Amino acid sequence: MADLIEIILFASAVLTMAAIVFAALRFLMGPTAADRTAAFDTLTIISISIIAMLAQYFGRIIFIDVAMIYGILSFIGVVAVARYLEGGL
Amino acid sequence: MEILRLAGAIIVFIGSVFLFLGGLGLLRMPDVYNRIQAGTKATTLGSMCVFIGLGIYHPALLSRMLVLLAFIVITNPISSHALARAAHFAGVKLVKGSVCDRLEVEEAEDAASGSPDPIGNDTINDDRPAGDLGGGG
What we know:
The complex is a heterodimer of chains A (about 90) and B (about 140). Chain A has helices at about 1-30, 35-60, 60-85.
Protein backbone atom coordinates (compact mmCIF):
# COMPACT_ATOMS: atom_id res chain seq x y z
CA MET A 1 0.00 0.00 0.00
CA ALA A 2 2.77 2.42 0.88
CA ASP A 3 4.59 1.55 -2.35
CA LEU A 4 1.43 2.21 -4.33
CA ILE A 5 1.03 5.64 -2.70
CA GLU A 6 4.66 6.49 -3.46
CA ILE A 7 4.22 5.43 -7.09
CA ILE A 8 1.06 7.53 -7.49
CA LEU A 9 2.73 10.62 -6.04
CA PHE A 10 5.80 10.12 -8.24
CA ALA A 11 3.60 9.75 -11.32
CA SER A 12 1.79 13.00 -10.46
CA ALA A 13 5.12 14.81 -10.09
CA VAL A 14 6.24 13.50 -13.50
CA LEU A 15 2.97 14.62 -15.16
CA THR A 16 3.32 18.06 -13.60
CA MET A 17 6.89 18.37 -14.86
CA ALA A 18 5.66 17.48 -18.36
CA ALA A 19 3.15 20.32 -18.06
CA ILE A 20 6.02 22.65 -17.10
CA VAL A 21 7.92 21.55 -20.22
CA PHE A 22 4.92 22.30 -22.48
CA ALA A 23 4.34 25.71 -20.91
CA ALA A 24 8.04 26.54 -21.21
CA LEU A 25 7.94 25.62 -24.92
CA ARG A 26 5.03 28.02 -25.40
CA PHE A 27 6.96 30.63 -23.41
CA LEU A 28 9.89 30.29 -25.83
CA MET A 29 7.82 29.99 -29.04
CA GLY A 30 4.89 32.31 -28.40
CA PRO A 31 4.45 34.74 -31.30
CA THR A 32 3.02 37.66 -29.30
CA ALA A 33 3.78 39.09 -25.89
CA ALA A 34 0.35 38.03 -24.64
CA ASP A 35 1.22 34.41 -25.44
CA ARG A 36 4.37 34.65 -23.40
CA THR A 37 2.56 36.27 -20.51
CA ALA A 38 -0.14 33.58 -20.54
CA ALA A 39 2.59 30.94 -20.56
CA PHE A 40 4.28 32.70 -17.63
CA ASP A 41 1.02 32.71 -15.69
CA THR A 42 0.50 29.01 -16.33
CA LEU A 43 4.12 28.24 -15.41
CA THR A 44 3.64 29.99 -12.09
CA ILE A 45 0.48 28.09 -11.21
CA ILE A 46 2.11 24.77 -12.08
CA SER A 47 5.22 25.73 -10.09
CA ILE A 48 3.08 26.51 -7.05
CA SER A 49 1.63 23.01 -7.25
CA ILE A 50 5.16 21.56 -7.53
CA ILE A 51 6.29 23.57 -4.49
CA ALA A 52 3.30 22.27 -2.51
CA MET A 53 4.23 18.71 -3.47
CA LEU A 54 7.83 19.37 -2.38
CA ALA A 55 6.58 20.76 0.94
CA GLN A 56 4.76 17.47 1.50
CA TYR A 57 7.76 15.43 0.35
CA PHE A 58 10.33 17.17 2.54
CA GLY A 59 7.90 17.82 5.39
CA ARG A 60 8.72 21.54 5.47
CA ILE A 61 5.65 23.70 6.06
CA ILE A 62 7.55 26.89 5.25
CA PHE A 63 7.68 25.92 1.56
CA ILE A 64 3.95 26.64 1.39
CA ASP A 65 4.57 30.22 2.52
CA VAL A 66 7.17 30.49 -0.24
CA ALA A 67 4.56 29.25 -2.72
CA MET A 68 2.07 31.85 -1.51
CA ILE A 69 4.54 34.74 -1.88
CA TYR A 70 5.47 33.41 -5.32
CA GLY A 71 1.80 33.45 -6.28
CA ILE A 72 1.30 37.01 -5.05
CA LEU A 73 4.34 38.26 -6.98
CA SER A 74 3.25 36.42 -10.12
CA PHE A 75 -0.25 37.89 -9.90
CA ILE A 76 1.11 41.42 -9.56
CA GLY A 77 3.53 40.82 -12.41
CA VAL A 78 0.92 39.47 -14.79
CA VAL A 79 -1.51 42.29 -14.04
CA ALA A 80 1.27 44.87 -14.55
CA VAL A 81 2.33 43.33 -17.87
CA ALA A 82 -1.30 43.17 -19.00
CA ARG A 83 -1.76 46.82 -18.12
CA TYR A 84 1.40 47.67 -20.04
CA LEU A 85 0.28 45.75 -23.15
CA GLU A 86 -3.04 47.52 -22.98
CA GLY A 87 -1.25 50.85 -23.21
CA GLY A 88 -2.07 52.25 -19.80
CA LEU A 89 1.28 52.14 -18.05
CA MET B 1 -5.41 6.12 8.00
CA GLU B 2 -3.74 4.37 5.11
CA ILE B 3 -6.89 4.60 3.01
CA LEU B 4 -7.00 8.36 3.66
CA ARG B 5 -3.44 8.70 2.35
CA LEU B 6 -4.36 6.63 -0.71
CA ALA B 7 -7.38 8.86 -1.37
CA GLY B 8 -5.20 11.98 -1.05
CA ALA B 9 -2.63 10.57 -3.46
CA ILE B 10 -5.34 9.74 -6.00
CA ILE B 11 -6.76 13.28 -5.77
CA VAL B 12 -3.24 14.67 -6.29
CA PHE B 13 -2.91 12.45 -9.35
CA ILE B 14 -6.22 13.73 -10.79
CA GLY B 15 -5.05 17.29 -10.24
CA SER B 16 -1.74 16.62 -11.94
CA VAL B 17 -3.61 15.18 -14.94
CA PHE B 18 -5.50 18.47 -15.19
CA LEU B 19 -2.22 20.40 -14.93
CA PHE B 20 -0.80 18.24 -17.73
CA LEU B 21 -3.82 18.92 -19.92
CA GLY B 22 -3.52 22.63 -19.20
CA GLY B 23 0.11 22.64 -20.33
CA LEU B 24 -0.78 20.63 -23.43
CA GLY B 25 -3.62 23.01 -24.30
CA LEU B 26 -1.30 25.95 -23.85
CA LEU B 27 1.04 24.38 -26.39
CA ARG B 28 -1.54 23.19 -28.93
CA MET B 29 -4.31 25.80 -29.00
CA PRO B 30 -4.45 28.04 -32.08
CA ASP B 31 -4.61 31.62 -30.76
CA VAL B 32 -3.99 33.71 -27.66
CA TYR B 33 -7.52 33.61 -26.26
CA ASN B 34 -7.79 29.83 -26.53
CA ARG B 35 -4.38 29.50 -24.92
CA ILE B 36 -5.38 31.74 -22.02
CA GLN B 37 -8.58 29.70 -21.64
CA ALA B 38 -6.78 26.36 -21.57
CA GLY B 39 -3.87 27.55 -19.52
CA THR B 40 -5.98 29.17 -16.83
CA LYS B 41 -9.09 27.07 -16.32
CA ALA B 42 -7.45 23.66 -16.42
CA THR B 43 -4.57 24.70 -14.19
CA THR B 44 -6.91 26.34 -11.67
CA LEU B 45 -8.87 23.10 -11.32
CA GLY B 46 -5.68 21.06 -11.30
CA SER B 47 -4.00 23.08 -8.59
CA MET B 48 -7.21 22.99 -6.52
CA CYS B 49 -7.17 19.20 -6.72
CA VAL B 50 -3.46 19.05 -5.86
CA PHE B 51 -3.89 21.26 -2.78
CA ILE B 52 -6.95 19.39 -1.50
CA GLY B 53 -5.26 16.06 -2.11
CA LEU B 54 -2.11 17.10 -0.28
CA GLY B 55 -4.23 18.41 2.58
CA ILE B 56 -6.00 15.05 2.85
CA TYR B 57 -2.73 13.18 2.54
CA HIS B 58 -0.99 15.19 5.22
CA PRO B 59 -3.59 16.81 7.55
CA ALA B 60 -0.99 19.07 9.20
CA LEU B 61 -0.80 20.98 5.91
CA LEU B 62 -4.55 21.27 5.41
CA SER B 63 -5.12 24.80 6.76
CA ARG B 64 -2.30 26.37 4.76
CA MET B 65 -3.38 24.46 1.69
CA LEU B 66 -6.88 25.91 2.05
CA VAL B 67 -5.48 29.44 2.30
CA LEU B 68 -3.34 28.85 -0.80
CA LEU B 69 -6.35 27.41 -2.63
CA ALA B 70 -8.51 30.42 -1.80
CA PHE B 71 -5.74 32.72 -3.02
CA ILE B 72 -5.35 30.85 -6.33
CA VAL B 73 -9.11 30.71 -6.90
CA ILE B 74 -9.45 34.46 -6.34
CA THR B 75 -6.45 35.77 -8.28
CA ASN B 76 -6.12 33.42 -11.25
CA PRO B 77 -9.34 34.44 -13.08
CA ILE B 78 -8.52 38.11 -12.47
CA SER B 79 -5.10 37.88 -14.08
CA SER B 80 -6.37 35.85 -17.03
CA HIS B 81 -9.21 38.31 -17.61
CA ALA B 82 -6.83 41.26 -17.50
CA LEU B 83 -4.52 39.45 -19.91
CA ALA B 84 -7.27 38.62 -22.41
CA ARG B 85 -8.53 42.20 -22.31
CA ALA B 86 -5.00 43.50 -22.84
CA ALA B 87 -4.53 41.15 -25.79
CA HIS B 88 -7.76 42.42 -27.33
CA PHE B 89 -6.80 46.06 -26.94
CA ALA B 90 -3.27 45.36 -28.16
CA GLY B 91 -4.82 44.25 -31.44
CA VAL B 92 -4.30 40.49 -31.35
CA LYS B 93 -6.74 38.95 -33.82
CA LEU B 94 -8.88 35.89 -33.21
CA VAL B 95 -8.05 32.71 -35.08
CA LYS B 96 -9.70 32.25 -38.49
CA GLY B 97 -12.99 30.46 -37.99
CA SER B 98 -14.03 32.18 -34.76
CA VAL B 99 -17.75 32.80 -34.64
CA CYS B 100 -18.06 36.22 -33.02
CA ASP B 101 -16.23 38.81 -30.93
CA ARG B 102 -18.75 40.48 -28.66
CA LEU B 103 -16.36 43.15 -27.37
CA GLU B 104 -15.58 44.30 -30.92
CA VAL B 105 -19.29 44.31 -31.80
CA GLU B 106 -20.05 46.43 -28.74
CA GLU B 107 -17.23 48.83 -29.55
CA ALA B 108 -18.54 49.22 -33.12
CA GLU B 109 -22.07 49.87 -31.86
CA ASP B 110 -20.85 52.45 -29.37
CA ALA B 111 -18.75 54.17 -32.00
CA ALA B 112 -21.79 54.26 -34.27
CA SER B 113 -24.13 55.68 -31.63
CA GLY B 114 -21.55 58.10 -30.28
CA SER B 115 -21.91 57.25 -26.62
CA PRO B 116 -18.85 56.95 -24.40
CA ASP B 117 -17.39 53.51 -24.20
CA PRO B 118 -19.01 51.44 -21.43
CA ILE B 119 -15.77 49.58 -20.81
CA GLY B 120 -14.36 52.59 -19.01
CA ASN B 121 -11.04 52.41 -20.75
CA ASP B 122 -9.94 56.02 -20.79
CA THR B 123 -6.45 55.34 -22.08
CA ILE B 124 -7.12 53.81 -25.50
CA ASN B 125 -9.72 56.06 -27.14
CA ASP B 126 -8.81 59.15 -25.21
CA ASP B 127 -10.96 61.84 -26.81
CA ARG B 128 -12.59 63.01 -23.61
CA PRO B 129 -11.19 65.62 -21.24
CA ALA B 130 -9.25 64.38 -18.26
CA GLY B 131 -11.38 63.76 -15.21
CA ASP B 132 -14.48 62.90 -17.21
CA LEU B 133 -15.21 59.32 -16.25
CA GLY B 134 -18.14 58.92 -18.57
CA GLY B 135 -20.93 59.70 -16.16
CA GLY B 136 -23.33 61.37 -18.58
CA GLY B 137 -24.64 60.01 -21.87
